[in-house]
Amino acid sequence: MNDQLERLNRLPLRSNLRGLTPYGAPQLDVPILLNVNENTHGVPADVRAAITAAVSEAAMGLNRYPDREFTELRKALADYLGHGLDETNIWAANGSNEVLQQILQAFGGPGRTALGFPPTYSMYPLLASGTDTTYIKGEREEGYELSAESAARQVRELKPGIVFLCSPNNPTGTGLGLDVVEAVYEAGNESQTIVIVDEAYHEFAHDGTPSALTLLPGRERLIVSRTMSKAFALAGARLGYMAAAPEVADALRLVRLPYHLSAITQATALAALQHREALMADVEDIKKQRDRIVSELTRMGLSPAASDSNYVFFGGLENPHQVWQDLLDAGVLIRDVGIPGHLRVTAGTETETTAFLTSLESILANRP
Ligand code: PMP
């Protein structure tokens, strides 16, 4: 055991945090960063200019606390989502991680459970530990599929307080049919299960893919979580949000810290929402690069999963960690998610994607 861990263990840490390691994808200084599903296309110039102007304006009022209800931002987010939603349906926080944490604070906690279906977003169990919620690992079928029937059966049997459905799923990239969401919601009627559909990557889905937002009317325990970190290229600004029945937003008001969304964050997010055309054009290019990765990896004899997100999960590697290291040595950082035979890569710009594909092909050709 290293010194630091020993010192940590001497503290009176809560027992459900003992032995955990913090979320931590490596942050390395490498020319091509394709490891944490960021938007690789940067913030377009007109969006940057709008943000700068809005932040400068907000700076004049920084002596005052920000609008605790961030009403203008909630209106703009409702307008962006459509589906007949208004500001009473919307809640936001510093990244969707914080929204998810607030949901666990309000609906999870000691004596309560949250069900996820690994492999899925690695923060779900950490958010559960942090709120003293017991995390239950559900099961997927062959090829990491999750059918409506299997998911509903597990919810009926386990009666969790909360279910996480990640669609498109991280790390596999594959979306869930709305039949799964409907079946899980119905299966949770008796246990009053809160159903979270994490749609962090929804904007990258193939055209015509429906959102779980369409299922919100009449389902007061359904929450659809979104973020501006991906399609809106704002991972650094930290703005995540959810849409649900107004009473869900009221529940999250009970656990949020006062003034949790800074005036700078609100101004930044509003400016990006008002100038989203260029951002959405970049999303289209990212989808093109994602589809190109899928077809090129297939040509190389690997097995990429169908992806509705801005990254591709691919198998068929004998020694994924070595390939990850070789790519890193070539200046390309991707993600080893610890799943045998697999790696995950974020779709880059055309140049970055070409560099990844070329490096990978030569690494695979030089392996005996
Ligand atoms: N959900 C999923 C599935 C994610 O992959 C991520 C980030 N990688 C998040 C939520 C959280 O994103 P943020 O806090 O930046 O909104």
From TrEMBL:
Residues spanning the signal sequence: none
InterPro entries reported for this sequence: Aminotrans_II_pyridoxalP_BS, Aminotransferase_I/II_large, HisP_aminotrans, PyrdxlP-dep_Trfase, PyrdxlP-dep_Trfase_major, PyrdxlP-dep_Trfase_small
Q: Which domain of life is it from?
A: Bacteria
Q: What is this protein called?
A: Histidinol-phosphate aminotransferase
The entry sums up its family as follows: Belongs to the class-II pyridoxal-phosphate-dependent aminotransferase family. Histidinol-phosphate aminotransferase subfamily.
- The EC code for this enzyme is 2.6.1.9
- Domain Aminotransferase class I/classII large intervals: 32-358
Leading EC class: transferase
Outline the subunit composition.
Homodimer.
* Gene Ontology molecular function, alphabetical: histidinol-phosphate transaminase activity; pyridoxal phosphate binding
Instruction: From the UniProt record, list the reaction(s) this protein catalyses.
Output: L-histidinol phosphate + 2-oxoglutarate = 3-(imidazol-4-yl)-2-oxopropyl phosphate + L-glutamate
Names of the cofactor(s): pyridoxal 5'-phosphate
Q: Residue positions of the PTM N6-(pyridoxal phosphate)lysine?
A: 230
Q: What is the protein's species of origin?
A: Pseudarthrobacter enclensis
Q: List each coiled-coil range.
A: none
State the gene name recorded for this protein.
hisC
Sorted alphabetically, the Gene Ontology BP terms of this entry are: L-histidine biosynthetic process
Q: Could you tell me which pathway this protein works in?
A: Amino-acid biosynthesis; L-histidine biosynthesis; L-histidine from 5-phospho-alpha-D-ribose 1-diphosphate: step 7/9
Print the keywords alphabetically. Answer: Amino-acid biosynthesis, Aminotransferase, Histidine biosynthesis, Pyridoxal phosphate, Transferase
